Amino acid sequence: MKITGKVWKYGDDVNTDVIFPGKYTYTVSDRAEMGKYALEDLDPEFTRNAQAGDIIVGGKNWGCGSSREQAVTCLKVRGIGAIIAKGFARIYYRNALNEGLPIVVSPEAVDALEKGQEVTIDFDKSEIVTAKGTFKFPPYPDFVKGLIEDGGLIPHVKKSLGL
Amino acid sequence: MGKTMIEKIIRRAAGREVKVGERVWCRMDLSTARDFGGANCVLQFEEVTDKKGKVWDPDKVAFTFDLQAPSHSEKVSTNQKIIREFAKKQGIKKVFDVDWGIGQHVLLENGLVKPGDVILGTDSHMNLLGAVGAFATGVGNTDIVASWFEGTNWFRVPETMKITVNGKFAKGVCMRDLLTHIVGTLGADGMFFLSTEFYGDTIERSSLSERITLCSMVTEMSGKIGLIMPNGKVLDWLVERAGDEVLDRVKTLAADKDAVYCQELEFNVDNLEPMTSCPDAPDNVKKVREVAGEHVDQVHIGSCSNGRFEDISAAFEVLKKANSRVAPGMRAIITPATREVMLQCAEAGYIQKFLEAGVIFTNPTCALCTAEHYGALPSGDVGMSTTNRNFIGKVGKGSHTYLASPMTAMATAIRGKITDPRDILG
């Protein structure tokens, strides 16, 4: 699989409160609607203008803070193609896997990319192609790949139970 | 080669030998959800099982209502009703409704948490249960739903950091100040994916409340879990609540003397001063003295980090010593963590004294850990709170929050500006 998209770039320690504000966790339960509020407290321009296929580039510890899965869902339903970061906070990492939102760790690619540029992620080759060069990224561990191949955590569990 | 606590805990839950870095399936001792995320879990479980699914063991599923208790809107009320009805349908008896208080604390008080237990919850501060040696962790709704099928989920066996703390806190200084100091030193990703074990004479002497403060803030350093094996009075308290099995767990799950740690740090608290996390991040840390005199509009004491009886007692001592009341124009809110804590406050006579001093003393709930709750801040206002996060906009768009100990928060409420509690306590 290969995806190409336009970059939205952010810094370190972007927390779930600015990705999906807490107040909407009570009032918005429709998945499709969650996309309307994505990154509202971080970058209103993104909230207004982000397009399906765009790629988010973040610093270290992307998605730290709350356990809310909506912080992934809102980007997934908005059509964001992937997130490239220097690292992902642990609950966010699990939630992204569970929602099927591709996440890629590559500090080098993050440093090479600027807002508005085009970037291509080649998942088969584990490569990120930027204007400043091509960077390898670590593929998902085999255990995680197994979950993804089964269609996610819940389908995996159901399959193991013969459901 | 010796094993750390988390290696032994995951070995028990996996039913086989494990090694660091490996991803393994574990049995859950408890899989919980609260009114935050809980309704999403229920709706998702019903959807993926076509409303025919049964949770694997109704006695190992619990619901707590704490983030919006009692509910402030029809939408929240509906979410809470969705959970109540699901619990009834599934035969889940462990439903701690809006009258109980903060989930992890309620589970602990009700004897549902033992050292070595593996517990999931829709709360990123579930890991404060590491204060009694349990491996509890916050997850999103999909992880909860997956666990309800057969009581399992997967974890990566983490590396472990060892932190040793020695020394005695000076008057006006407490565990929260140490923790704030550690967050400032290590940063927002200082414990990235790690388990952390706490040792040293400061820890051995510490109360349950202090251990909860310490372990709750591991989340703010992106840690997986902070672990302290119960000893002394904490062990007695836990055995009384959770039974004699606690003693076996302490014996079998304590780290080996030759356990391997990825990093070892030491702190001494003898000369520690009151500390604060300045706006807008927990790791933006300064001494309270450095920001003393800054204006604050509202003070809040409570939360899963600092809402226990000992925390409220510490605030009360500052009020008593000041022999004063809340400063004119200041809004001061105290929220006990649980009903049990509130009763302790009532029995000690604190509630009346706080009310007479102009404090708003509320029912047990998470309160100002979220926007859209009472006490939300308007744009431009500055708050001081004993909660665990001060990300921008968290309790109101355009507002800013300092995080500090209950003593610093109370001193600030009395003087109307950021105040080092030692200025009152002497």
Radius of gyration of chain A: 15 Å
Order the strands across the largest sheet of chain B as they lie in space. Answer: 4-3-2-5-6
Percent of residues in beta strands of chain A = 15-25%
Content-based structural category of chain A: alpha/beta
Largest interface: A-B, 43 and 45 residues
- Strand % of chain B is 15-25%
Report the strand count of chain B.
Answer: 18
So, the CATH homologous superfamily of the largest domain in chain B?
Aconitase, domain 3
Count of domains of chain B:
2
CATH topology of chain A: the name is Aconitase, domain 4
Q: In terms of quaternary structure, what is this?
A: heterodimer
How far apart the termini of chain A lie comes to 29 Å
CATH top-level class of the largest domain in chain B: Alpha Beta
Instruction: Give the integer mean of the pLDDT values of chain A.
Output: 94
Percent in helix of chain A: 25-40%
Look at the helices and sheets of chain B and give the structural class. alpha/beta
How many individual helices of chain A?
9
What would CATH call the architecture of the largest domain in chain B? Answer: 2-Layer Sandwich
Question: Biggest β-sheet of chain A: count, sense, barrel?
Answer: 7 strands, mixed
